[in-house]
Queue: 3 jobs
Job 1
Amino acid sequence: MSKYDQYTGFQVHSPDTWTTFHKNKFDVKPFGDHDVEIKIECCGVCSSDVHTISGGWGEQKFPLAVGHEIVGKAIRVGPKVTLIKEGERVGVGAQSWSCGECRQCKNDNETYCPKQMDTFGAVWPDTGIVTQGGYSSHVRTHEHWVFPIPDEIPSHLAAPMMCAGITSYSPLVRNGAGPGKKVAIVGLGGLGHFGVLFSKALGAETWVISRSHSKEADAKAMGADGFLATQDKDWNKEHIMTFDLIVSTANSFGEGFDLAAYLALLDVHGKWISVGLPEDADLTIKPQSFMSNGCLIGASHLGSRKEMLAMLKLTAEKGIKSWVETVPISAENLSTTVQRLHKNDVSDLVEVRDMERVGSLGSELRSKRIAALKTKP
C-alpha cells in the first residue's frame, strides 16, 4: 500500500499506445497548507494532451493522466488558504505551481516563473511524484492556481477556458486589443475561436485568417468582422499595413507557409504573437520582412491569475459562450476523442464526469457549428 494519498484517473502507459487509456490509481503529493483539493466535474481535452501522450513534444513520464482544463468542487482547503473557500466551484489550468518569490511572479508574470510546474507531467522535488492531470477523480493544487468560476458560466463551457481561453485572452489584453484596434486571428480551432470571441468582446475590429473559406461562415457567426483565405490570389493585398495585432493560433504550418505575407499586414510596430505550438515547425524569417513596417514578433504563454479572473469576469458579463459538444466518458471514448483531435476533426474537448459513475466528454468542433450539449451522468 502506498504511503501517499491516491486518486483514480485514465492514464496512457506509453507513446506507443497513446490511444489506449487505463483506469488506474496513482500517488499524489502530500497535502500542503496552501493546497486545495478538488473533486473534478469536467476537464477539457486540449491539443497539448495529444502532443504529450503521442510523444510529439518529446519524452514524458509515463504512466500519465493528461488534461489541464479542469472544473470541479473544492472539497478541502489548507489552513493557510485565503483565495478559495471550501464548497466553491473552481477551475485549474495548465500550471499548478510557481515559486511566488521571483521577479516574474511578483510582476503578474507567474506563468514565466523559472521554477513553474505543469498540472501534469511535472515532478515534485521532495517526493519524485509525477503530477497527474484532469482525466482523474480529483486534483490537488496550490491556491494561486485555483480560480473561482462565476455562476453565470456553465462548467462544461468554463473548462476549455482554463487553457485555450486564457491562452488566447492574455496576448490580446497585453498587446492592446480594444476599441480602435484591428486584430487578426490566424486559425479558427479551439484557441482561434476564443481569440475571435474575446477580441470582439474587448471591442476590437476582428478578422480571421484561414487557409480556405470553409470556416468563413463559422467565423462570421462568432462575430468576426472579416475573413481572409490565404488560398486566394493576392489575399493580403488590400490589407497591407492595416492590422495592429496578429495572434497566431495555428497548430500547423502548411508547405510553403509565407510568414512575410502575414507580417506585411501589420502597421508600423504592429505585433505578431504566436500561441500555437506545432510539432517540428520552423518559421523562416528574413530581416527584410521587418523593414517596411518595423513589426515585432513575439509569443505568449498562458496568462496570470489576474488575467484569468478578468477573463472569467468578462465572459460572465458579456455572456460569451464557446462552442461545445459533449459525449459520454470511458476509456474507449477517450481513445476515439484524442484520435479525432489528432486528425483535426475537433479542436478542444470537454469532459464532464463523476469518476464513480459514467460522465460525459465534450468537444469544440473545429469547423462545424453544433449546439452546446451536456449529457447527464
Job 2
Amino acid sequence: MPKFPNYQTIDGLTIGASYLPDAVRSALAYKPQEDDLFVVTFPKSGTTWAQCIVYLILNKGKPYENLHELMAKFPYIELFGADAMEKLPRPEAIKTHLDFKRTPYSPSAKYIHVVRNPKDTCVSFYHHTLNIIPYEFDGTFDDFFEIFINGQNDYGDYFEHTLSWYEHRNDPNVLFLTYEELKSDTRNSILKMAKFLGDEYEKMLIENPDIMENVLKYSSIEEMRKIVRMDQLTQHPPLELLPSGLRHMMKYMQEKNITSLSNFEFVRKGVVGDWKNHFNKEQVKKLDDKTREKLAGTDLLKYWQKLGILE
C-alpha cells in the first residue's frame, strides 16, 4: 500500500486536511455573478501561469507585487470560501480546481480551462504534495504514482476531471487550452485568452506592444518564481483580516508548528517532459494505457502523441 498524504473528504470531494470544510462547502454552493471569470485546472496543470496571464491582461501589463496581492485579486474559492468572492473588485477572476460538475456554473460567467498531459501533471503534483508541509507526505514518487493513477489524490481522478471540461470545450463561455500549447506558442495563447476576456483586451495587446511584452515578461517562469513564493504565506496580515478558509489554514499551520515554507518553490520547472526524469518503463506503459482508455476519441490523444508525450 502506498503512503498517503493527509487528506479529508468533504461532500465527496477529496481535498487537503488543512482546508476549512465550511469554506469548501460554500465554494461548492456559490452562485456565480454575471461577470465572474474562473480559471479552472486540475492541480499542477498551469494554474498559476494562467492566473498571472489573466491578471496581467486585466491590469494592462502591470505586475503584481507579491503572492498576497495575486491571491486577493484572484482568490482560490475552495480555500478562501465564497464570502471572499462577494467582495471581489471587478474585473478580476476566481481560481478553482473543481471538475465541471462541481464548479459553480452560470452560462453568463466565463471559464478558462487549462489541461496538462497526465505524466507531467503527476510529477508536478508529486513535488507539490511532497513539499507542501500540511500534506504531511513523506512517500516516494512510486507511492504518489499509484495514488494518482487510481484517482485517489485530492480533487479526484485526473481523467474524469479532464473529460468533464473537454466535453464543454466548444461552449461559448469556455476557453479550453492545453499547457503544451501555452508553452509552444505563448504569444498567440495570450491573444486567445485576451479575446475570450473581451475584444477590447485583444485590441489593447495588438495596438500596444509594450503591454504585450509586459504580459510575456511578468508571466514568465523566471518572474513568477521571484514573486509567487510560498514563504509569503507565513508573512500574512493579521489573522482576523484573512478570509475564513485562509485563516483556518494559517491556524492549522500554527498548531502543526509549521513556521516556514521557504524551502519550497511553488513555481518549480514549468517545462514539458520532466516526467522522463521520474517514470520507469512499467509506469510509462501503465499510464499510457490508461490515458488511451480514458481519453479515447479525444483530440488530446493525437496532440500528445504528436509531441511524443504519449508513446
Job 3
Amino acid sequence: MSLPTAARLRYTLVAGATAVVIGTGFTVIGLSRHAEAEPTPAAAVASELPSEEATTPSPSITEAPTPSATPTPKKTTTSPKPRKTTTAPKKTKTTAPVPSTGDNVLDAVLQHINAARADEGLAALTLDTKLSKASALHTQLMINGCGLEHECPGEKGLGDRFSAQGVNWSSAGENIGFGSSGSSEAAIIRAANGLTDSMLAEKPPNDGHRKNLLNTGFKRIGLSIVRDSKGITWMTQDFVN
C-alpha cells in the first residue's frame, strides 16, 4: 500500500506511573522521495482598533434668573426607592471540541492494525472509547496549530491525558502522524493505513512506532483519524496495557 505524500510520524513510550518518556522528539520521514516540510499552521493575525483620544467636554454654565419673591417651599415626603439588585450571570464551562472519526474509518484502521498483529502471532487490540477521546482531543490540538507533537503548549503529558479521561493504565505509548489525502471515507482510510504500514516497515534501531503497534503488553488502543480543511489527514494511536 502506498504511503500518502508529505507523511511524517512520531512516537513516544511511557512506562509506569512516573510517566518517564522514552524517545521524545524522535521523527521519521516515511519515503524520503515524497517527504515535504511539515505544514505550517496559519499564522494568527492580531489586529488592533485605532486608539482614539478621549476628550472631556467643557461644562456649559448658565445663570439662573433672580426670583422676585422667594416662595415658601412645600414640605414633601418621598418614599425611598428600592435598590435594584443585579445578579452576575453564571459562568458556563466550555470544553474543547472533540473531533469525531467515522465508525467505518475506525473499524477499517483497527482491523488493519490487528491483522498486522495477527501476522506476528499477537492478540488483537480492543478499541477503548475513553482512550479514543483522549486521542481525539490531542488530534484537535495538533490540527489547531500545535503540529506534530506529543505534548502541545498547555497540554498535560501522555499518561495524565489518559487518566483525565478515566483510563486505567500502567504502561502506555503513542504514535502520531499525518499525510495528505482525498476527502472521501475510502481515501482517509487509505491514508491512515498507509501511515500504519510505514510504521510497521521500520527497522531497528529506529522502529519505535513498530514496537508500539506490536507491543505484547498493550491490550487496548485509542484511535483518532481526522482530515483537516487543508486536506491533511492526522492520526493519533494511543496504547495502554
